[in-house]
Amino acid sequence: MDEAQPQATTPDPASVATPLAEPIAAAEAAIVAARSKNAAPPSALNLPDFAPKAAAAKPEGIDLLADVNLHVKIELGRTRMLVEDVLRLGEGSVVELDKLAGDPVDVFVNDRRVARGEVLVLNDNFCVRINEIVAPVGRDGAP
């Protein structure tokens, strides 16, 4: 019983086609061609210049606030009124305030008192001359 057993043969690696065989061969050929032509190395990437510009002027002083919206309020004085009295107000009504004429007025920025000043009339417009900058109050209430 001499039956011939089938022998396992290993295929020749050069004869086996793989899906990547052609792209790898093309890449190798391109590398060999580039080396033979003494091609220059690939150029650096063109990235944007992130360095600060020397010519760019930084805003100074009041220019820092050019695009900041602030709510400025001048308080001449205060009073307490009943709703009934408010409803009776009309054109020409006089409301008495708790401050005297000539007393300093408070200047508020974003509902924080920042200064005190006096009311002036300049070219038929009311103005406020700042006489005192109020020290900022800390979180604990101490100046």
The tally of helices reads 2
Query: Could you give the distance between the termini?
Result: 112 Å
Class by alpha and beta content: alpha+beta
Radius of gyration: 43 Å
CATH superfamily membership of the domain at 61-133: SpoA-like
Approximate strand percentage:
15-25%
Described by strand count, sense and barrel closure, the largest sheet is: 4 strands, antiparallel
Percentage of helical residues? Answer: 10-25%
* Average pLDDT metric: 75
CATH architecture of the domain at 61-133: Roll
The CATH topology of the domain at 61-133 = Surface presentation of antigens (SPOA)
Question: Low-confidence parts, pLDDT < 50 over ≥5 residues?
Answer: none
Instruction: Write down the overall geometry.
Output: elongated
| Number of β-strand runs | 4
Strand order of the biggest β-sheet: 1-2-3-4
**Pattern of helices and strands:** HEHEEE
CATH class of the domain at 61-133: Mainly Beta
What is the strand and helix layout of this fold?
Elements: H1 21-36, E1 72-75, H2 83-87, E2 105-109, E3 112-122, E4 125-133
Antiparallel strand pairs: 1-2, 2-3, 3-4
Outline the structure in words.
This protein is an alpha+beta fold. The chain has a domain at 61-133: Roll (Surface presentation of antigens (SPOA)), CATH 2.30.330.10. The chain is built from two helices and four strands. The protein has helices spanning 21-36, 83-87; strands spanning 72-75, 105-109, 112-122, 125-133. A four-stranded antiparallel β-sheet has the order 1-2-3-4, with no helix packed on it. Strand 3 (112-122) and strand 4 (125-133) form a beta hairpin. The longest helix has 16 residues, at 21-36. The radius of gyration is 43 Å and the shape is elongated. It starts with 20 loop residues before the first helix and ends in a 10-residue tail after the last strand. The mean pLDDT is 75.
